[in-house]
Amino acid sequence: MHLEWILSPITQYAVAAAVLLACLAVFLSTTARVAKFQRQNRAVDSSAAADLRALASKVEHVQSSLERMENVPPAPAPGPGMNLNRRTQVLRMYHRGEPVETIAAALRTSRNEVELLLKLHRLMGEKLAANAHE
Length: 134
Fold this sequence. Notes:
Helix content is 82%, strand content 0%. The chain has 134 residues and is mostly helical.
């Protein structure tokens, strides 16, 4: 076999040139990728900075709203009224056979309010029964 061509200076220079070109290609592609990542990083940084400014603006707005709300006197507590929970209690006590006066005293409401609630309950029951028969 003739291997003298390996020892030829032209072959050695050609191999060295090919290796140098490969290194140059790797260097240039790496440089291009680094530049691309830097551009993307700058874009993300500017977007994050804009979002941070918007968030700071919203926080200031919320703080000013909170300060204004702290200066407003609290709303008065609602008066004694009949809520659904109390209505349920009235009906349960009535169905257990307790008198209206006892129900009113136990729930701290007026006798008239309890009687009105029971009357409305009876009327609604009659109306539902009438509608069911039709």
